[in-house]
Amino acid sequence: MYRTSNLQGMEFEIEKTLGYKVNRLAVVLRQNLVELFNEKGYDVTAEEWILLNRLWEKDGRTQSDLAETTLRDQTTVTRLMDKMEKKGFVTRKNDTADRRVVLAYLTPLGTKLKQELIPIAMGMLKQAGQGISKKNFDVTLKTLEKCLNNLQ
Q1: Is residue 59, in this structure, part of any structural domain at all?
Q2: Core-most of 51, 60, 63, 133, by most CB within 10 Å?
């Protein structure tokens, strides 16, 4: 991760660190994904993409659940849900069991986006993995998962 010549003269090359590489990849993936969505005529941001994926997994989630499962704060999720509601992707309804709880549901458009956006994302990921064997890719994913588990 970093090289040390001695304790006083520690060398640190951020470009060679796990955090830098993972963050840089995440930024480039997000930028490419949004560009591809826009090229195909979809006005979906990377942040909205993440929320859509969580709702495709399980519709009718609370905003606090969405915040937790996407590692976003409640205020950010509320702001994103406002935008997604205006775009017609989601609707929010009070829970019948507890009217204080607001649940987010996909609209027909939000549901339809799954079959349209996932192939675009999968194509981008395929491009990102060009020249990498399945074995090496699987090892990379397992290694990243281990790093996550070590820090959580």
Answers
A1: yes
A2: 51
